Q: What sequence folds into this?
């Protein structure tokens, strides 16, 4: 969506074509729109094949999550990874980075390059559905050692190994708004001992989400929900 100026906004290109052809947009219909800075209830005043014009009617509340969460998620089968992107976006994550881990299925890293555009579109559409002003960036996939080089914030390695402390217990007592947190989530089969050692050596804190063994995408969403609610409490 282009910038809303003078109460008027314009949508062009593929998004406009989708709205017109698939959703059958017509003048007089109302939608919630956002230009990345504010959200509005708006009415369509003009709907062509590649151009839709809106008149902003009234602002719509769009609260932001008080913590900045980057998810570094080991690559799993793409239908499940895509579902994780959709739901993590709804929960308020700021950035998603696909990671090749030792136990990631072979071929996913190279194939992920062809999915980048689709994954960002999924994040954008999910963000719109959740009334987010800004959808998360889905970055290009990285190798494990590049993932653990992230260093600007609190860093937690989600680990199913017994004996690790619960994530909630390891959060800081003082939770400043806007704090930056990195979550590193493993693949099916979990982390190797070498990966655990390298992450620990790079300053990552291993944490647990409980005694159950969770699927990779479930672990990501559970951890994000814990963090968001901890910062809202």
A:
């Amino acid at each position: 969506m282009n910038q809303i100026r003078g109460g008027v906004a314009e949508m062009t290109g593929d998004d406009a074509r989708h709205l017109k052809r698939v959703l059958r947009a017509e003048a007089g219909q109302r939608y919630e729109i956002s230009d990345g800075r504010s959200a509005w209830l708006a009415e369509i005043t003009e709907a062509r094949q590649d151009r839709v014009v809106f008149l902003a009617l009234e602002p719509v509340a769009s609260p932001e999550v008080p913590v900045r969460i980057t998810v570094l998620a080991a690559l799993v089968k793409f239908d499940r990874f895509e579902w994780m992107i959709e739901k993590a976006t709804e929960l308020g994550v700021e950035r998603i980075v696909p990671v090749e881990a030792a136990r990631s299925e072979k071929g996913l890293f190279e194939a992920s390059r062809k999915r980048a555009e689709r994954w960002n579109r999924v994040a954008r559409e999910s963000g719109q559905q959740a009334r987010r002003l800004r959808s998360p960036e889905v970055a290009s996939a990285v190798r494990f050692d590049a993932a653990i080089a992230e260093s600007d914030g609190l860093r937690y390695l989600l680990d199913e190994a017994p004996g690790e402390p619960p994530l909630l217990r390891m959060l800081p007592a003082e939770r400043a708004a806007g704090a930056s947190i990195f979550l590193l989530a493993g693949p099916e089969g979990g982390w190797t001992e070498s990966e655990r050692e390298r992450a620990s050596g790079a300053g990552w804190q291993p944490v647990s989400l409980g005694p159950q063994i969770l699927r990779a995408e479930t672990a990501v969403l559970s951890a994000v929900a814990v963090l968001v609610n901890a910062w809202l409490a």
